[in-house]
Design a protein that fits this description.
This protein has 479 residues and is an alpha/beta fold. It contains 16 helices and 23 strands. It binds nicotinamide-adenine-dinucleotide. Nicotinamide-adenine-dinucleotide binds next to helix 8, strand 9 and helix 9.
Length: 479
């Protein structure tokens, strides 16, 4: 198993000699000890990335870059089984999710951005006076990419593929809980033909390796997917070097069910909205807002399905819910469940670690609360676990206040057969993504980003190049 830092095309120990363990959350056993990157390793990686940018990668044309990026997608698919197993072992997500979603979607991102690399264009712009004016679209430069543990390969790929397509060089810092597929990605880049220094991978902790990337004067921009508090820290740390940032942060997304919806479909997807990837999803539909007139009937359907969804060994293809990623995350979820009960919400399902859980892993039951007060903690804060807060609404005004009533604005879903109502509400909701009669859809071509404290900047699709490239204006005097 690969466990080292990848800097300038070489596998390296940390200069400090330190390592940290990565743990299988289904068994709590140590999978491997990983080289722990520190500030001095980040510095080496930045120098390698700068040299590659000024050297072979910077001189390569877009069509050549595109071929390498496409090949990365092919190599991911060629190693799909191995990557899916690594992801499930490191994160605890079910093997079905890893192999059907995380791995193929990661490959898709390389296929999409291979195509995009040759479509990055400037403009010619008519101006006053005898001038010929045009813009050039240039790479941002050396970029730091910091990703969380919930979709390790997928979220790394969303950033790496777009960054490479725009001609940048990269230092990728995976989350300390889940470094394995990011390290494998370094090898995949090498197999595909990336020159040394173009993609460096430095596993390590946020406060050390992560902060060093953000503060480093040789890094031109940092893209983070992580918690809102981490995003705030990045804004402070980036201010000294006026570094360009792209922040994909937390969420508390409303999943709204009207009385006129297809209630079977809405119930099925309410579960998928919150329990997919054990609720460790930034866009989790963690607030279920149901029209009062159908509430009793609807919640019965949701409860019935949730009871059947018991956690199981994530390597078992039949398992639908794996363990939470870490002991810390399990404690966090327990803390919120206790708070929910203290604050007077009614626990309908779950709320505990399952007694029949396989092994001694960090399993937690699918959990549903109702009678949740809109301003209570479990209705406002991101739990990032399999905990659903259910609220009801009587009319449109009350609904809109509830839907927009948190500091977040990442996603929302609307279930109704009334087209006008759906589109009107899609416009009124303050969120970066709105699903109508569906949930949790993503595509490499579709822009994705947050409103409010869910962050700024957009990734996926061509919109990602707003961050990964910069526009230069050129004036030519024709007089
Ligand atoms: P986190 O913010 O603790 O960590 C995310 C990454 O940031 C990790 O690699 C971590 O090491 C690094 N980091 C932490 N502190 C840092 C610092 N001071 N400087 C630089 N880097 C630092 O988040 P997490 O617990 O790994 O992941 C869960 C969070 O991520 C949730 O809030 C979730 O909503 C969010 N998330 C958002 C999206 C999205 O697309 N908006 C997607 C997935 C997860």
């Amino acid at each position: 198993m690969l466990t080292k830092l990848f800097i300038n095309g070489n596998w390296e120990d940390a200069l400090s000699g330190k390592t940290f363990p990565t743990i299988n959350p289904a068994t709590t056993e140590v999978i491997a000890h990983i080289a722990e990157g520190g500030a001095e390793d980040v510095d080496r990686a930045v120098q390698a990335a700068r040299a590659a940018l000024d050297g072979p990668w910077g001189k390569m044309n877009a069509a050549e870059r595109a071929k390498i990026i496409w090949k990365m997608g092919e190599r991911i698919m060629a190693r799909a089984d191995e990557l899916a197993k690594l992801e499930t072992m490191d994160n605890g997500k079910t093997i079905t999710e890893s192999s059907r979603i995380d791995v193929p979607y990661s490959a898709d991102l390389y296929f999409y951005y291979a195509g995009a690399a040759t479509k990055l264009e400037g403009h010619t712009i008519p101006v006053n006076g005898p001038y010929f004016c045009y813009t050039l679209r240039e790479p941002l430069g050396v970029v730091g990419l910091i990703v969380p543990w919930n979709f390790p390969l997928l979220l790394a790929s969303r950033k790496v593929a777009a960054a490479l397509a725009a001609g940048n060089t990269v230092i990728l810092k995976p989350a300390a809980q889940t470094p394995l597929t990011a390290i494998a990605l370094a090898e995949i880049g090498m197999e595909a033909g990336l020159p040394p220094g173009v993609l460096n991978v430095v596993p390590g902790h946020g406060a050390t390796a992560g902060a060093a990337l953000v503060k480093h004067p040789g890094v031109d921009g940092v893209a983070l997917t992580g918690g809102t508090a981490t995003g705030q820290q990045l804004m402070r740390d980036a201010s000294n070097t006026v570094k360009k940032l792209h922040l994909e942060l937390g969420g508390k997304s409303p999943n709204i069910v009207f009385a006129d919806a297809d209630l079977e479909a809405a119930a099925k997807m309410a579960l998928m909205g919150i329990f997919y990837n054990k609720g460790e999803v930034c866009t989790a539909g963690s607030r279920l807002l149901v029209e009062k007139s159908i509430y009793d009937n609807f919640i019965e359907k949701v409860i019935e399905r949730a009871k059947k969804m018991q956690p199981g060994d994530p390597m078992d293809p039949k398992a639908r819910l794996g363990p939470l990623v870490s002991a810390a995350q399990l404690e966090n979820v327990k803390k919120y469940v206790a708070l929910g009960e203290q604050e007077g919400a009614r626990l309908l399902v779950g709320g505990r670690q399952p007694e029949a859980a396989p092994g001694k892993g960090y399993f937690f039951q699918p959990t549903i609360f109702d009678q949740v007060q809109p301003n209570s903690t479990i209705a406002q804060e991101e739990i990032f676990g399999p905990v659903l807060a259910t609220l009801t609404f009587q009319d449109g005004d009350e609904l809109l206040k509830l839907a927009n009533g948190t500091m977040y604005g990442l996603a929302a879903a609307i279930w109704t057969k009334d087209i006008k109502k759906a589109h009107r509400l899609a416009k009124e909701i303050k969120a970066g993504t709105v699903w109508i009669n569906t949930y949790n859809n993503y595509d490499a071509a579709m822009p994705y980003g947050g409103y409010k404290m869910s962050g700024f900047g957009v990734e996926s699709g061509m919109a990602a190049f707003e961050f990964y490239s910069q526009s230069k204006s050129v004036w030519v005097d024709l007089s």
